[in-house]
């Protein structure tokens, strides 16, 4: 269960599920505030993302 007050941990999210996409958006908002360095080992459709940033956030797919 996702807790925005303690978001640490590992998440496997299916972006076609509305609630899971909202979890991702919440995690990204927290990361923008806390710093992208805490957003590590991110995979998108099984491929690693070198570094999370606002640019990556803008290009997230609707599904995946």
Structure commentary:
The chain has two helices and two strands. It has 64 residues and is mainly alpha-helical. The chain has one domain (1-64). The longest helix is centred in the middle third of the chain and has 17 residues, at 18-34. The model has no long low-confidence stretch (mean pLDDT 82).
Distance between the termini: 20 Å
Q: Low-confidence parts, pLDDT < 50 over ≥5 residues?
A: none
Query: What does the overall shape look like?
Result: globular
Task: Indicate the mean pLDDT.
Answer: 82
Topology as H/E string? Answer: HEEH
Strand order of the largest sheet: 1-2
Give a quick set of tags describing it:
64 residues, mainly alpha, two-stranded antiparallel sheet, 2 helices, globular
Task: Provide a short characterization of the protein structure.
The chain is mainly alpha-helical and 64 residues long. It is built from two helices and two strands.
How are the SSEs ordered, and which strands pair?
Layout: H1 18-34, E1 43-44, E2 47-48, H2 54-58
Antiparallel strand pairs: 1-2
């Amino acid at each position: 269960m996702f807790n925005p007050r303690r978001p640490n941990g590992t998440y496997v999210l299916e972006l076609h599920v509305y609630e899971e996409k909202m979890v991702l958006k919440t995690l990204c908002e927290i990361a923008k505030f806390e710093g992208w360095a805490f957003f590590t080992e991110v995979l998108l459709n099984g491929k690693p993302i070198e570094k999370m940033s606002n640019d990556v956030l803008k290009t997230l797919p609707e599904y995946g």
